[in-house]
């Protein structure tokens, strides 16, 4: 086993002889590792939110298709907050379209944020893998 000193915190690694890296983990390196970890956790949260909103948009698309088959003056139960109101199908479709537009904007913003985080993580990975090689694992399991 090889001991690497990080700000007086010993790190034990079990690597093959060819995988061992003779590099000291500096405070700056630890900050980069911490930044990567925070970005990775936040990315996972955003990815979960993105997938939920994407699924919600698909549900709204399906609902719109169903309502287009209904009679335009037929009353539809539409949920607003905790209550349901009866509105004509045509008005329900308009409201759903507005909701979809908001969802699309949210999805675009989430995707933009996720892309920014991916770029930041890519830069941190390049630096950390460049210094530590196989001695560090920054990949998702």
From TrEMBL:
<protein>
    <recommendedName>
        <fullName>Prefoldin subunit 4</fullName>
    </recommendedName>
</protein>
<comment type="similarity">
    <text>Belongs to the prefoldin subunit beta family.</text>
</comment>
<keyword id="KW-0175">Coiled coil</keyword>
<comment type="subunit">
    <text>Heterohexamer of two PFD-alpha type and four PFD-beta type subunits.</text>
</comment>
<comment type="function">
    <text>Binds specifically to cytosolic chaperonin (c-CPN) and transfers target proteins to it. Binds to nascent polypeptide chain and promotes folding in an environment in which there are many competing pathways for nonnative proteins.</text>
</comment>
<feature type="coiled-coil region">
    <location>
        <begin position="93"/>
        <end position="127"/>
    </location>
</feature>
<feature type="coiled-coil region">
    <location>
        <begin position="36"/>
        <end position="63"/>
    </location>
</feature>
<dbReference type="GO" id="GO:0005737">
    <property type="term" value="C:cytoplasm"/>
</dbReference>
<dbReference type="Pfam" id="PF01920">
    <property type="entry name" value="Prefoldin_2"/>
</dbReference>
<dbReference type="GO" id="GO:0051082">
    <property type="term" value="F:unfolded protein binding"/>
</dbReference>
<dbReference type="InterPro" id="IPR002777">
    <property type="entry name" value="PFD_beta-like"/>
</dbReference>
<dbReference type="InterPro" id="IPR016661">
    <property type="entry name" value="PFDN4"/>
</dbReference>
<keyword id="KW-0143">Chaperone</keyword>
<dbReference type="GO" id="GO:0006457">
    <property type="term" value="P:protein folding"/>
</dbReference>
<dbReference type="GO" id="GO:0016272">
    <property type="term" value="C:prefoldin complex"/>
</dbReference>
